[in-house]
Amino acid sequence: MTDNAGRRSQSWFAGADKTGFFHRSGIKAMGVPDRMFDGRPVIGICNTWSQLAPCNAHLRELAEYVARGVYEAGGLPLEFPVTSLGETLMRPSTMMYRNLASMDVEETLRANPLDGVVLLAGCDKTTPALLMGAASVDLPSIMLSGGPTLTGRREGRQLPSGTGTYEMYDQVRAGTMTPEAFVGAEACMWRSNGSCNTMGTASTMASMVEVMGMALPGNAAVPAVDARRRVLAHDTGSRAVELVREDLVMSKIVTREAFENAIRLNAAIGGSTNAVVHLLALAGRAEVDLTLKDFDTVAAGVPLLVDLVPSGTCLMEDFFDAGGVPVVVNELGELLHRKALTVTGRTLGENNEGLTGWGSPVVRSRKDPLQEDAGIAVLRGNLAPGGAIIKPSAATAALLTHRGPAVVFEDIDDLRARIDDPDLEVDADSVLVLKGAGPKGYPGMPEMGNLPIPAKLLRAGVTDMVRISDARMSGTAFGAVVLHVAPESAAGGPLCLVENGDVIELDVPTRRLHLEVTDEELTRRRSARGEQPIAAPGGYLQLYLHHVTQADTGADLDFLRGKRGSDVPRASH
Questions:
Q1: 489 lies in which domain range?
Q2: Does residue 364 lie within any of the structural domains?
Q3: What pTM was computed for the model?
Q4: Is 539 helix (H, G, I), strand (E, B) or coil?
């Protein structure tokens, strides 16, 4: 026997009774020799590979390198699939299925003979889904991200994933780019497997994982097809075995200090607004006290240091060449909890000591930041009593203080039908308002918060406007966009009462979002509106609609919050 015969997996594999026979015999059918059941750590490789999630299409290969590392360290790797979430294909929103995928992860981990797990994630929602599921079980866990795609190029210029799509489509709508040229650019944006090459949500969450200590140093930025991503996979598998031997479970790493590090790093890298809703949901699973307000207060004074699209000009390959997250960690210095424990068994500071890069302009110094105070701004007021957020680093500075009349769209279909109508009463000072795009209303809180600018204004040279909704926004998107308004309109939040012409005041410096309508008038409108029940057609959607929480608490399912542990279930034979 090896060092610990009392491992969780031995509840399946030890003993000469019929139960042990069944379990060992089934695994041996895959060509596993008898000596692998000697009590060594059994490591699950939780894989979100899928051809329906193109960003994750290379994870099958990475899993093989993880398995090599597990074998090298004396463990037994067992790979298993879970629900994958591909942002490019899935409807109505991957966000609606994030919680379902997390349930898949949690129950698979608990139901099987696993002592630890390697989480293979890539596209946006797979990262939080896997972390949320693993946090509720609390086994020794480590994540490996799939890495970003190579730099896209078109006509001699860089083509940023996602961001380039928004920019070019606006050009098509303005009549400055032909539809044929737009379609021709499709093959230029993603040159390889991997997630977006911008600081979109996938790269943001990979960075969060790294600074929170749940992945090895360098996890966020190594390109998906770089040989060093395979080495990282091998090392991750090897380290997973040691995590089990050290009993270094996830809850020892994902602490309040880890979340504060993530919030501060998100500001420094110009990360996605989606990090807010995902970190809040993860904190709920990990039983860590974290609120929406923390995203404003914890990141106060943190400068924007990374010059990456959409808050800057460079792409993820440039960030990797500049040294990636370790360089930013060292530049932030005492702003981070450097003594926070990580999956290496060492602290964040120890992991990154001496990794200062070579002075690339992609990563600025704190003495020369791109922006002085770059954190997510949390807004409140009578339009968002539960809060709303905006990413100042991706917005036109002049619009961060703005007052204008609302142009209201009742839902996404209304928006699509009227946004380019030449007769739409709108000008550059208008505030575009979208309802019905929150967790319950769409359903699934889609990435539609960056409402398109009306075509007639694009042709007039308008490039940004204040936009407000209960939706999310892709991490690759940009603009003066107010998101995650809570409560959402479908839940009866004040957003549902806004009418055309209502004046809305946005004041980011004072964190104010105010609808200039009297309380009496809002009461009258609510009475006239009456109850608006949401139809629940059955299946997972019905479960989701009955239990999803609002954006300000992470849009998780209420009954999934907290840890349920890794106790071994009753035998099945």
A1: 379-532
A2: no
A3: 0.95
A4: helix
Give the pairing type, strands 466-469 and 431-434.
parallel
Task: Please count the structural domains in the chain.
Answer: 2
Q: Is residue 222 part of a domain?
A: no
Residue whose C-alpha is closest to residue 25's, from 17, 448, 285, 205? 17
The model's pLDDT over 32-69, given as tens digits with 9 standing for 90+, comes to 999 999 999 999 999 999 999 999 999 999 999 999 99
pLDDT greater than 90 at residue 374: no
State pLDDT tens for residues 343-361.
Answer: 999 999 999 998 888 999 9
CATH classification at residue 482: 3.50.30.80
Alpha helices in 333-406 (DSSP H): 348-352
CA-atom Rg of the chain in angstroms: 24
pLDDT digits over 2-33, tens only?
Answer: 455 579 999 999 988 998 999 999 999 999 99
Q: Which CB contacts under 8 angstroms, 24+ apart, belong to 512-521?
A: 512/379, 512/380, 512/381, 513/379, 513/380, 513/381, 513/383, 513/384, 513/388, 513/468, 513/482, 513/485, 514/381, 514/382, 514/383, 515/381, 515/382, 515/383, 519/382
In a domain, 19, yes or no: yes
**Residue 55 placed within a domain:** no
Cα–Cα distance for residue pair 530/496, rounded to 1 Å? 11
